[in-house]
Amino acid sequence: MTDAPEDAPEDAPGVVPEDAPEDAPSGPPPGGRSFLDALLEVQDMDTGIAQLEHRRAALPERQELSRLTDALKEAGRRYAEVQGARGELAGRQQELENEIAATSTRREALEQRMYAARGTPARDLQAMDDEIRHLRARRDELEDAELEVMVELEPLDSTSASLEAEGRALRAAAEQQRDALAAAETDIDAQLGTLVAARAALAGTLPGDLRDRYESLRTRLGGTGAARLAGNRCSGCHLELPSMEVDRIRHLPVGTVVTCEQCGRILVPAPAPVPVPAPAPAPPG
Ligand SMILES: [Zn+2]
User: Fold this and answer.
1) How many other CB atoms sit within 10 Å of the CB of residue 260?
2) Are the beta carbons of 261 and 13 closer than 8 angstroms?
3) What ranges do the domains of the chain cover?
4) According to the model, what pLDDT value does residue 3 have?
5) What is the model's pLDDT at position 277?
6) Ligand 1 mean position, distance from CA 40 (Å)
7) Separation of 120 CA from ligand 1 center, angstroms?
8) Ligand 1 center–CA 259 separation, angstroms
9) What are the distances in angstroms from CA 242 to CA 5, 53, 111, 248, 262?
10) Which residue, 21, 38, 104, 186, has most beta carbons within 10 Å?
11) In the CATH scheme, what is the code of domain 60-188?
12) Mean of pLDDT values over 26-44
């Protein structure tokens, strides 16, 4: 904690008379308060604005919507996978059916030729008969294969249907969550609008150099440019100041701008507490 030394640069920690700015604002802060009290209030508003902005970014509705969007994406991925597998099996089933049809056509043609063939050499009839038997066996094989394909298709069809239902439910929930998020954002935006306007009005009553200094500190020091001296502690860095320093600061002329030596923030002493007289010791006995 220090006063400004005589040769200190303008932005050095120290004493700046708050009531003598070059670019004086339109009027003093309302309510007969000091500029430093108004500055602290601006700081509180800035903290409130930052909290609202944080709350807006971290809204649970936003997180839930993001979770639903991810779940929907995952369901879509699984659905595409199942559709791919189904498509392959359906293609295989179609090939088998085509082959079964070709086999039947060939067999029927042979059978007709056999029955129509009078005087065909026995050797040729035997060959046709052999082929017909072979074609029947082949058809049985193909039909077994098709049955296997259909058995494989069944669970994919039910998975596909349940993924479609899941997708519908997720889309509906996401829609609801989008509405809830918009409502929550609107609510916070209204609060932000009010607070930002009030902050701008109050900040406009501060002397320009004090305001500039505050803004630059706030930007540099994580959103807090002005702190209270509460007891012996700076509310900006939460460090304690030596009692003698605190005492010295409290006796500076009202409105003197003091900087916390430890964190560099503008330090505003809280009003001195009214001393409470110690109770008289109880008489012995
Ligand atoms: Zn500090």
Assistant:
1) 22
2) yes
3) 16-56+207-269, 60-188
4) 45
5) 63
6) 14
7) 116
8) 8
9) 20, 36, 115, 10, 12
10) 38
11) 1.10.287.1490
12) 78
How many A from CA of 226 to the centre of ligand 1?
9
Q: 């309510």: which residue's tokens?
A: 31
Instruction: Give the C-alpha separation, 163 to 157, whole Å.
Output: 10
3-state helix, strand, coil in the chain (%, to 5): 65, 5, 30
> Which residues sit with Cβ closer than 5 angstroms to ligand 1, an ion?
234, 236-237, 260, 262-263
Q: What is the pLDDT of residues 176-213, one digit of tens each?
A: 999 999 999 999 999 999 999 999 999 999 999 999 99
Helix (H) or strand (E) run with residue 227 in it: strand 226-230
Distances (CA, A) of 284 to 174, 278, 279, 280: 76, 17, 14, 12
Q: Determine which helix (DSSP H) or strand (DSSP E) holds 257, and give its type and residue range.
A: strand 256-259
Instruction: Using alpha carbons, list the distances in angstroms from residue 112 to 118, 131, 202, 265.
Output: 12, 13, 104, 106
Ligand 1 centroid, distance to 33 Cα (angstroms): 23
Reply yes or no on whether the pLDDT at 8 is more than 90.
no
Cα of 42 vs centre of ligand 1, distance in Å, is: 18
When the pLDDT of each residue in the chain is averaged and rounded to a whole number, the result is: 87
pLDDT category of residue 10 using cuts at 50, 70 and 90? very low
* CA of 210 relative to ligand 1 center, distance in Å: 17
Q: How far is the CA of 1 from the centre of ligand 1 (A)?
A: 9
CA of 108 to the centre of ligand 1 (A): 100
Note the pLDDT tens digit of each residue in 232-272. 999 999 999 999 999 999 899 888 899 999 999 999 987 65
* pLDDT tens-place string over residues 208-233: 999 999 999 999 999 999 999 999 99
Residue 29, both tokens: 């802060």
Amino acid 268 reads V
The span from the CA of 115 to the CA of 2, in Å, is: 122
Q: Cα 229 to the chain's mean position, in Å?
A: 36
